[in-house]
Design goal:
alpha+beta; about 25% strand; Beta-Lactamase; 5-stranded antiparallel β-sheet; about 35% helix
Amino acid sequence: MERFDRASTAAEVYQAGLNLVLERLKPERALIFYGYDDKDQLSAQVGHNLDPRTVLDMGDVSLGILQDAMEAGEAKMLVDAMQDPRFGERTSAVLSGIRSVLSCPIRGDSGDIEGLIYLDSRIQVAAFKQADLPWLNELAQAMQTRLSAVNA
């Protein structure tokens, strides 16, 4: 993932990661979270078809799905969130109309989760494939490696 070699700021790393996701996986919407705010919630850094400044306040994504992704601690896919018994009845999932979801935590050097890559589609069921999970893990690792270098 050579694109990160050119990134000299954290903002450039986030944007490069988002660009790679958009090119390869073509999600309807995407977010890259990194770091935590004063409420101990992940902080959205960049987004595609989602405003990172308001996404957690406006209910554009399901907080339950984000929490599930964080607790899983690994790349995770939902083929159809509306049919999943954990999320299909949740108001936020219903209101946002989320169908397919692909997410992957970004682990810091200590192994703690420092961020999350989140992709979804409100239109298409099974928008992502199981084969996308290893690539997304590699992307998350490459982002963390570059972020560690930028922040050193």
